[in-house]
């Protein structure tokens, strides 16, 4: 009613006066106010309902306000809000067990953090201490977080203003056939050439200086480029040959997003360290962490790990993780993500690609899809330049919102990343909106 609208206006005004937002020029912001959410939907400050095809920042994997998780957080709050990290606690022990049971191979010890970036920071620190080496290799077209080491490992423009030249990060090109750095014309060629390029990078940087290679199992914000199985297995083999630790960053791709518990399962590869956050609690309470293999765990059996944080394994977050994982298991949420991807999103996006000249490529798995928009399907000129936006791109996004869909976008791409719980009917409704909105983009296509 009128009260809600009035409150939303106050919220907006206070936000503009006092809230300093991530990654933004503060005076140029116009944030959407969100006053409520349930399942796959959110309500904005004008009382309008939008279908959340962004899962916020790709993390509400069980949808908004899942009753079992809300209740578990309430129960934990009533029982015991907090204990310091040096003590044992039921919620933390159980969360670590449930995560360790689902991570691949012998990744059976869990170090909890507050989010994804600090998970990456700690994974890198563990790899450095374990190997006694300093450099870390990561790919261009990646995102690993906003803190110092994580942002310098990141391969996108957000790194540039944060690079003071002392991070130890070295970037290489990963496989991405649609915009191949290797002039490849097939997936096999791209995989082989990208591996050869990485091999040369390792050789020329000096293998004995490299602590780790960190890769998103499937790069997320950078474009959901699914690497070839042979590539990921080749990276594992390369790491083994040179004593380099393989860190799989599953912050975005983990916890059901790709139709598996972890995206690394698509490649039958066991990393030495695995970072997670986001989906582990669906973001209801902030939580991240590192799953640690025995090999690296051994290093810290009798040598103190020089790192920690006040809220490591915070009971409210741990209780949210336990309830999230149990709900995902009980309700077949990972299987739902896989089925929706295979039966609804994938086929429909491929069909749309036939009709929309603005769609250059669609790719993805589960509820993790990218629609790459172009001005020209032959030259593949993107609808917005790398690192930027464009009036054409802004127009498509505005049209999605006007039609009731909250999209996730990066540069020239729209990502279809709804909750893993999305129903077939909701997925179809959202794709219908995207289909209509893309007519705006088609108008920008040359010829
Ligand atoms: N790693 C990946 C792959 C991510 O997608 C993100 C966030 O989007 C991060 C790390 C950083 O996580 P956080 O924002 O929780 O620090």
Automatic annotation (TrEMBL):
InterPro entries: Aminotrans_3, Aminotrans_3_PPA_site, PyrdxlP-dep_Trfase, PyrdxlP-dep_Trfase_major, PyrdxlP-dep_Trfase_small. Keywords: Aminotransferase, Pyridoxal phosphate, Transferase. Its EC number is 2.6.1.55. One of its GO terms (cellular component) is cytosol. It comes from the Bacteria. Belongs to the class-III pyridoxal-phosphate-dependent aminotransferase family. This is Taurine--2-oxoglutarate transaminase. It comes from Nesterenkonia xinjiangensis. The lineage of its organism: Bacteria, Bacillati, Actinomycetota, Actinomycetes, Micrococcales.
